[in-house]
Each structure stands twice: as structure tokens, then as C-alpha cells.
Amino acid sequence: MNIKNRIASHCKYLRLNAIGEKIQSLADNASHEGISYLDFAARMLDVEIEHRQDREMLNKIRIARLPVNHDLKQYDCTAVEGMPVSRLEQLKELTWLDQNFSLVIMGPNGIGKTMLAAGLCYHAIEAGYRAYFRTMEDIMTILKTKGISKIAMTDYRRLCKAHFIVIDDIMMISIARNEANAFFHFINALHEKVSFVITTNKSPKEWVETIGDEVITTSILDRLLYRCEIIKLSGESYRLKNRKTIFGKAK
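^ ATP-binding protein, sequence as received from the core. Prediction below:
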């Protein structure tokens, strides 16, 4: 067995996949640059660590269930009212998360509420926080099935240990009184431990119409709004403004 194959075999055994794939180029560069053995060893470990960090980040994003559009570099602050660049940059610093504040992002459909919430979730993951993105429907499914589904229970326990939870499109689906009660207990258990980011196209006063119980609605709002910044966005729907058509440019 030649030296290259021997190293590749050792790397496979030790699960040093990145080093095994790049050992030849690393060795060639080291020979060309004339670096020391210690520098060469450091470069190999750097490659492996970077590979593992990238893989870990991808896994966190997968578990977080971020939507495809979560890059805040693509968020157009000029297209909406209520989110100037300075405010967006301040939100991206996540100091509000460290202070255990929550956000309620309100506005009509199609103006980027979900993208904004998902982008902040992504920044939180990058910063090392346990952050997750779930729709209201996802949350209710978890609460209804965690007693009979291992997958739902695993997700529920994950959310209970979170630093940051996005609940997208809250109050978009009608829920029964017993379901509303379960949702209240979920919020009640986490409201002083987790920073929530809520997206909604309904004002808090309209939530009672979805829940159908004023007492439960008031209790939920009391906890969500205790340490909370309400961000009201307005503007034209991006989807309608950029509507696609098979017959040429849409009017």
C-alpha cells in the first residue's frame, strides 16, 4: 500500500473525512511553500474542523426547519414601511435575545414577515443559540401528537430547551378550546425562558376570534407581550408585485 492510500485508510478509520479528501493538495501546497511539520499538521486539523463546523451548521439548519428564503442580505428594507436598515441591523445583533425579549412582526401577506423571522433565526443559529422555526400548524400538531408520536415528543423536548422559537403565521388556523388550552400551557412554560418571534397578519385583538375564548387569549397575550417589541410592517405584497405568468409579463 502506497503512502497516499495508507493515509486515506487511516483517515477513514479515524473518520477524518476532510483530511482524507484533501491530503494530496495539502501535501503539495506544504511542499511548495516549504512550511514546517507543525504548520502542516495545523493546516490538516483546520481543514477537518472547518468541515465539521460546516456539517454541524447544516444539521442545525435542517433541524431548525428554516424556509429556503432566510438570507437577510436579500431583504429589501425599501420595499416595506416599518423596517429601516438601521432597525434591521440592530435586530441582527441579537442583544434583544440576550435580554429575553420577544418580537411580534405584524403586517399583511407577502411583505416578508416570514423571511425576516427566518433570517433572525438563522443569525441566532450562527451565533450558537438553539433556534427553531415552526409554523402555528406545526406547533399545534406537536402539542396534539406528542403523547402518541416519538417524533413529535422529540421535537417538543427540543423546543422546550430552545433559546429562540419562531412561530410563523400565528392564529392563521382555527383551534378548538382544548387545543388553545394546550397552546397556552406551552407558552406559559417557556415565556420567561425563550425569546419568541411571532409573525401574524392579525392584530392581537383579533386573536380571540381564532381561539374563541377571551380568557385564554388574554392569558396568552399577557405572556407573549410582557417583554416584547411589536413591529408593524406595511407595503405592497412582493408576490403580487412580482407575479409570474406563462403569457409574458403580468399586469
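The chain has a mean pLDDT of 86.
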